[in-house]
Write a structure and sequence with these properties.
The protein is α/β, with parallel strands linked by helices. The chain has 4 domains: 181 residues, Acyl-CoA Binding Protein (Up-down Bundle), CATH 1.20.80; 90 residues, 2-Layer Sandwich (D-amino Acid Aminotransferase, Chain A, domain 1), CATH 3.30.470; 134 residues, Phosphohistidine domain (Glucose Oxidase, domain 1, 3-Layer(bba) Sandwich); 250 residues, Alpha-Beta Barrel (TIM Barrel), CATH 3.20.20.60. 46% of the residues lie in helices and 17% in strands. The chain contains 36 helices and 31 strands. Helix 25 runs antiparallel to helix 26. The protein is elongated, with a radius of gyration of 33 Å. The chain binds adenosine-5'-diphosphate and magnesium ion (2 copies). The site of one magnesium ion has 2 residues, from loops.
Length: 908
């Protein structure tokens, strides 16, 4: 190898690390599994020796189609060292060293290669293994497993062929489980498996151990680019060029008889967070047997009876790991003839409730500080804890389980089509819409239903996406359920659910129950509502944990959190939930109901006088709304948005009205008002109302409309001041595209305010600002800031106008396809599109502040309550986020997480 052009070698890059050389912080290079194997090795825990091939080697392989030139030798050197340590050679005929080849990227990823165990076995070495172990059965069992795993994962043979052959062998012997097959039968099975490989893969099962190992290593590299892995990365925005590491680990055997076995364990209960003994163990088994459900496992606690020495050692190790990782760890281990071996550990997944409990428990144990505890939880978990849930003590009959697609607890009668869902819900029934999968035609049915249940499709299926968008409970992909829409029934394990039978679905766990499961309010919401106190002696442990972490988040966050609330009731709830003001009070609802008629008068007004009269009617009503709101939010800022939606929304439906007028005309008693109304409806009808006469445009073409609203706000504020209140109103102009629009409205508004101040003798200090929700507004933010004291980014409309799609029209029609193709990882209406919409926000912030350094900046789109978006808004320097009252705790928590400086945390 004199002619080595590989730049990595020139730079002395190392592609292979012994387990003794790595550590847990090298996940980029060694992958999660490799980094943690190294960490455990260096902690002195019993890890079977081995080495890790780096992600760098994989990258070279993926770029060039070939492994780096130096890799073969480097692997050879590490293998030789391993052989020396173990005192035997890979595949050595009389006493073979065997290894496993395991994939392991930085992020665990579906679609990566399954582990191949027992590499090094061949027709020859299987005999040696049998002799060394003194166990023929064990050796042939190991060999058949190798051919099966290797055939399937490395050579791409359909795994069912092996499973069928195994099944046949069991049937022939009339035994139920694989451990009942003896050596002779397993030997026959090996012959059968080899035939399958030959005929399916077109080659013999390789007998050369190094060839086995190299093929498996390449297969791991190749698995980086499986369709599933690629799709997952696109959706999760994991860069496609990270590559995976490969771990080569000497084998230990859990299938050497009853004094051997394999298991999984957690250092704490991942459901409750309690410390204790949690896990499963399976005697005389290897690898995935324990989770594959091929035989019945025993609870980990039973290991104490089976093998006290290993059990005690495992408990000791679990404590070491918890103290070292300062977190719940999940563990894979194997016992080989009474000797315990650690095969994997990582920081384990947990339920939302456990996350909060564990974080505070670890603070109490002195393992982490509060800043770290805050990073250990997230807004999505908090949101989950706020949904009502099924009573845990209720007796339930579980029908099956699917994917928890959209949280909540829903109960209703089973219906199998949208039409029935709508019909029944109109007559007051609660229904659960059950479909194999949903499509845009089901939309109305989904709206009518309490919850949606499908038997097909994953987290990005139509049902899941749309349900999440609507905030509706959804369980999807419940594959055990056989949905028969024609016969209007579903079957599961021989159980039949007919149309009209009551079912309950849990969108937080994916569980599906027969009958009505009682729903209880979330204790966390009771706490936020002030109906449950964290300080009370008998307070729920979860509530205490949430309280502590929220208090810390509030202490450290820079972003303020406001609420989108249109009335005093919502405002009061928002206040209880911790809102520091109202970021968006829409005024359109103040024109509906009984007041709609007054709006009609306004629209139909022919003369100035008629119009002024209509406005005069509305003024006192508007004022009263504001007085209530300012009182509810006394001392806190309230941003009131002047009228935004197109006028036709306040007029009767065009078809209905046309029919009414036509019928009246045929009876020759046409109503004058209806005729004028119909004319107005026609006049105001728009192809694209979203892009039509709305927002500031209304204020400019309907004289007196905005000034009436400003007057109502000003008079309400004056009244509150006179009542010794502390109103802090901010007047917000929607849909501004250019500073000139704002200047005109501003001048008129200032006059009105001055009028009111003069008339009442009160100094009002009202501020005036604008929404930034059109690309042009963002692009000219520097100019607009000259006429605005604050900006509030309306990221819903901004997203629509930047992408050029209307949410109502497109979400149900093509978002599923976009999510499935990985064009979106998540809907841009859920999480702000940082590169596009976000860039406009960032630039507008800079331009606005350049013009007016004390410009107040906030966001009032739904993104204000989305965790990832909150971090973005923190980062670009907004002053506050505003979201729906229910999302306020989530925003508070995430604002704290964004501001907290705890570095080096693994928790994203
Ligand atoms: P996954 O990433 O799916 O967890 P692993 O690489 O951990 O895959 O391996 C799958 C199974 O094989 C696990 O149960 C693991 O404990 C077991 N295993 C892996 N390597 C060895 C080995 N060298 N000896 C014994 N069992 C092993
Ligand atoms: Mg594993
Ligand atoms: Mg808007």
């Amino acid at each position: 190898m004199s002619e080595n052009k590989d730049p990595h070698v020139a730079q002395g890059v190392k592609f292979v690390y012994d387990f003794t050389e790595g550590n847990k912080d090298l996940k980029d290079l060694l992958g999660g599994k490799g980094a943690n194997l190294a960490e455990m090795t260096n902690l002195g825990l019993p890890v079977p020796p081995g080495f890790t091939i780096t992600t760098e080697a994989c990258k070279v392989y993926l770029d060039s189609g070939e492994e780096p030139a130096a890799l073969r030798d480097e692997v050879g050197a590490h293998l030789a060292a391993l052989e020396k340590k173990m005192g035997k050679k890979l595949g050595q005929a009389d006493d073979p060293l065997l290894v496993s080849v395991r994939s392991g990227a930085k992020f665990s990823m579906p679609g990566m290669m399954d582990t191949v165990l027992n590499i090094g076995l061949s027709d020859k070495s299987v005999q040696g293994l049998a002799k060394q172990a003194g166990d023929d059965r064990f050796a042939w069992d190991s060999y058949r497993r190798l051919i099966q795993m290797f055939g399937k994962t490395v050579l791409g043979v359909d795994g069912e062929l092996f499973e069928d052959a195994l099944e046949k062998a069991k049937q022939a012997k009339k035994v139920a489980v694989d451990t009942d097959l003896d050596a002779a039968e397993l030997k026959k099975l090996v012959t059968r498996f080899k035939k399958i490989v030959k005929s399916e893969a077109g080659r013999d099962f390789p007998q050369d151990p190094r060839e086995q190992m190299d093929l498996a290593i390449h297969a791991v590299f190749d698995s980086w680019n499986t369709e599933r892995a690629k799709l997952y990365r696109r959706q999760e925005r994991i860069p496609g060029d990270l590559g995976t590491a490969v771990n080569v680990c000497s084998m230990v055997f859990g299938n050497l008889g009853p004094d051997s076995g394999t298991g999984v364990a957690f250092t704490r209960d991942p459901a409750s967070g309690q410390q204790g003994v949690y896990g499963d163990y399976l005697q005389n088994a290897q690898g995935e047997d324990v989770v594959a459900g091929i035989r019945n496992t025993v609870p980990l606690a039973d290991l104490e009876q089976l093998d006290k020495k290993s059990y005690d050692q495992l408990m000791q190790i679990m404590e070491t790991l918890e103290t070292h990782y300062k977190d719940l760890c999940d563990i894979e281990f194997t016992i080989e003839r009474g000797q315990l071996w650690m095969l994997q550990t990582r920081v384990g997944k947990r339920t939302a409730g456990a996350a909060f409990r564990i974080a505070t428990q670890l603070v109490d144990q002195g393992l982490i500080d509060e800043a770290e505890a805050l990073q250990r939880v997230n807004g999505a978990q908090l949101a989950q804890l706020m949904f009502p849930r099924f009573d845990e003590d209720a007796k339930v009959e579980q029908l099956g389980r699917g994917i928890a697609a959209s949280p909540g607890a829903a109960v209703g009668k089973a219906v199998f089509d949208s039409y029935t869902a709508i019909k029944w819900s109109r007559s007051g029934e609660k229904v659960i819409l059950i479909r194999r999968e949903t499509n845009p035609d089901d939309l109305d049915g989904m709206i009518a239903a309490e919850g949606i249940l499908t038997s097909r499709g994953g987290k990005t299926s139509h049902a899941a996406v749309v349900a999440r968008g609507m905030g509706k409970t959804c369980v999807c992909g419940a594959e055990d359920l056989e949905v028969d829409t024609k016969r209007r029934r579903l079957t599961v394990n021989g159980h039949v659910v007919e149309e009209g039978d009551v079912v309950s679905i849990d969108g937080s766990t994916g569980k599906v129950y027969l009958g009505e499961v009682p729903v209880v309010p979330s204790p966390v919401v009771e706490y936020f509502e002030g109906r449950m106190h964290a300080g009370a002696d008998d307070a729920d442990e979860l509530v205490k944990a949430v309280h502590r972490i929220m208090a810390y988040a509030d202490r450290v966050r820079r972003l303020r959190v406001r609420a989108n609330a249109d009335n005093a009731e919502d405002a009061l709830r928002a206040r209880r939930f911790g809102a520091q003001g109202i970021g968006l009070c829409r005024t359109e609802h103040m024109f509906l109901g009984e007041r709609r008629e007054m709006v009609e008068h306004l629209i139909l007004a022919d003369t100035d006088e008629e119009r002024e009269n209509a406005l005069k009617e509305l003024l006192p009503l508007q004022k009263r709304d504001f007085v209530e709101l300012f009182e509810a939010m006394d001392g806190l800022p309230v941003t009131v948005r002047l009228l935004d939606p197109p006028l036709h929304e306040f007029l009767p439906d065009i078809t209905e009205l046309s029919v009414r007028v036509a019928l009246a005309e045929s009876r020759k008693d046409a109503n004058e008002n209806d005729l004028r109304l119909l004319q107005a409806v026609h006049r105001l009808h728009e192809q694209n109302p979203m892009l039509g006469l709305r927002g500031v445009r209304l204020g400019l073409v309907i004289p007196g409309l905005f000034t009436m609203q400003v007057r109502a706000i000003a008079e309400a504020a004056a009244e509150r001041k006179n009542a010794k209140g502390d109103p802090r109103a901010e007047i917000m102009i929607p849909l501004v595209g250019t500073v000139q629009e704002l200047e005109i409205v501003r001048e008129e508004a200032e006059q009105v305010i001055a009028d009111v101040e003069r008339a009442t003798g009160v100094n009002l200090k009202l501020s005036l600002g604008t929404m930034i929700e059109l690309p042009r507004a963002a692009l000219t933010a520097g100019q607009i800031a000259e006429a605005a004291e604050f900006f509030s980014f309306g990221t819903n409309d901004l997203t629509q106008t930047v992408w050029g799609f209307s949410r109502d029209d497109v979400e149900a029609s093509f978002f599923t396809a976009y999510l499935e193709k990985g064009i979106f990882g998540v809907s841009p209406f859920e999480t702000i599109d940082k590169d596009g919409v976000g860039k406009l926000v960032r630039d507008a912030v800079a331009a606005g502040r350049a013009t007016r350094p004390d410009l107040k900046l906030g966001v009032c789109g739904e993104h204000g309550g989305d965790p990832e978006s909150v971090h973005f808004f923190h980062e670009v320097g907004l002053d506050y986020v505003s979201c729906s009252p229910f999302r306020i705790p989530v925003a508070r928590l995430e604002a704290g997480r964004a501001a907290s400086t705890s570095a080096g945390s693994d928790h994203r």
